[in-house]
Design goal:
Belongs to the Nudix hydrolase family. Helix content is 24%, strand content 37%. It contains 4 helices and 8 strands. A hairpin with a 7-residue loop joins β2 (20-25) and β3 (33-35). The mean pLDDT is 93.
Length: 147
């Protein structure tokens, strides 16, 4: 299967309690799953600029996303049904906001990103639906250990 290359910026958005924000996706072709804010890098855009744009569009927060934390390569099928090989770059953002503004969501996001929730590490461990990245709890543990 030929996969499209997809550069993407992902955000680990943490509240003052260290909980991470995830969106619940309900696509028509697979079971629901949860994912961090973020998305594809537009042509000519840097990963850092994409992270800030995606954060603003998906949460209403407009702030610097700081330096890139880590990179990973994953393969998946997008909500639009496109098989991709994604070069994902992750950024950490801390916020005092308890609520987010989803008014910047596209029509597709409005249809498939039905809910959002702040997750503690314990809530992630007990959660019964898939979330991505799959090792998010371990990533948060490592970040806490080095903070």
């Amino acid at each position: 299967m030929t996969r499209a290359l997809r550069p993407a910026a992902r955000i680990l958005l943490l509240d003052p309690h260290g909980r991470v924000l995830l969106f619940r996706f309900t696509p028509s072709d697979r079971p629901p799953f949860w994912c961090t804010p973020g998305g594809a890098v537009d042509p000519g855009e840097s990963y850092a600029h994409a992270a800030r744009r995606e954060l603003r569009e998906e949460t209403g927060l407009d702030c610097d996303c700081g330096p890139e934390l880590f990179q990973r390569h994953v393969e998946f099928i997008t909500i639009e049904g496109v098989p991709v090989s994604a070069d994902e770059r992750y950024f950490l953002v801390r916020t005092d906001a308890a609520e987010i503004d989803t008014g910047g969501h596209t029509a597709l996001e409005q249809r498939v990103m039905t809910r959002w929730q702040w997750f503690s590490q314990a809530a992630l461990a007990a959660h019964d639906e898939p979330y991505f990245p799959e090792d998010l709890a371990e990533i948060l543990d490592q970040m806490e250990a080095t903070a």
